[in-house]
């Protein structure tokens, strides 16, 4: 699968299960995506890194739950697309109004992961491209 070219797309992976983190990181890095791993929601929230193109997070963390993490991200004004990885599809009831959000239900295939990531990264790039064109027209 080909992603729209941009310097290097970056993903923040918030995952406290090492085997899941390895599986996701490996398969995204194979496709040329830079992955920054955060082992907890707290670690992610306290990071001082450049903005990410996508945030992938498990819903159940031992420190900051996925819904709390989501709220804190949005309350900080961060509009980065988010991919929730969960065993609980009913979480969508809480988040259905956010267009920059997708769910990936466990167990999932690598193909499903890549399709969701590609969709969110491309959607974000289209938004960025639209904003750039709009700003050029205003100038």
From TrEMBL:
Which Pfam family is an annotated match for this chain, by its short name? Response_reg
Tell me where on the tree of life, at the top rank, the source sits: Bacteria
SMART domains for this protein: REC (SM00448)
Q: Which Gene3D superfamilies match?
A: 3.40.50.2300
Please give the PROSITE patterns that the UniProt record associates with this protein: RESPONSE_REGULATORY
Domain Response regulatory: residue ranges: 10-121
Per UniProt, the keywords (alphabetical) are: Phosphoprotein
Name of the protein this chain belongs to: Response regulatory domain-containing protein
| Organism annotation | Anaerobacillus alkalilacustris
